[in-house]
Amino acid sequence: MTKVKILINESKFDHLKKALNGIGVTGMTVVNVFGYGVQKGHTTYYRGVETNADQLPKDRVEVVISKVPLQKVIEAARKAFYTGNIGDGKIFVYDIENVIRVSTGEEGAKALAYNGDAELLRATS
User: Fold this and answer.
1) Is the pTM for the entire model greater than 0.85?
2) Of 78, 81, 114, 120, which has the most beta carbons under 10 Å away?
3) What is the pLDDT of residue 86?
4) Which of the four CATH numbers 3.40.47.10, 3.30.70.120, 2.60.40.1930, 3.40.1790.10 does domain 2-42+52-94 have?
5) How far apart are CA 76 and CA 70, in angstroms?
6) Radius of gyration for the chain, computed over Cα atoms and rounded to the nearest angstrom
7) What is residue 54's DSSP assignment?
8) Which alpha helices (H) appear in the chain, and where do they start and end?
9) For residue 30, what are the contacts with CB-CB under 8 A and spacing of at least 6?
10) Whole-angstrom distance, CA of residue 98 vs CA of residue 85
């Protein structure tokens, strides 16, 4: 199992979401964050006064995969938000030791699969 953390500009999130859904990624966590990388922010104007905005708004998208090949996720993500400019984003890859689904106690790849859960989801909603 692998966790992929992706930092992107907010404007590219919909492209990324469609690309990942298109290759079979079934869930993701998205957090709005602020930060900067190589570009060190940018100059902006507030009430006519020039100021430096050194914390840029970004989206942090996290997915844990077990069946979708890692390289396929990386390629789909890069294609979704690549412009060739500084600030396109970053992709971080981590090994995951285990995943436990709290509701059933299932562990590992089974905890990520939602094959038979349509009935359960309808019963609890």
Assistant:
1) no
2) 81
3) 78
4) 3.30.70.120
5) 10
6) 18
7) -
8) 13-22, 70-81, 109-112, 118-124
9) 13, 59, 60, 61, 62
10) 36
For the chain, how many residues are written?
125
Long-range Cβ pairs for the range 14-19 (8 Å, 24+): 15/80, 15/81, 16/61, 16/77, 16/80, 16/81, 17/61, 18/80, 19/76, 19/77, 19/79, 19/80
Give me the residue label for tokens 């993500």: 77
Q: How far apart are CA 63 and CA 114, in angstroms?
A: 15
pLDDT values of the chain reduced to their tens digit, one per residue, 125 residues: 999 999 998 999 999 999 999 999 989 999 999 887 766 666 666 567 666 667 778 899 999 999 999 999 999 999 999 988 877 899 999 999 999 999 999 999 898 887 654 444 444 44
The confidence score (pLDDT) of residue 117 equals 47
Which amino acid is present at 93?
A: V
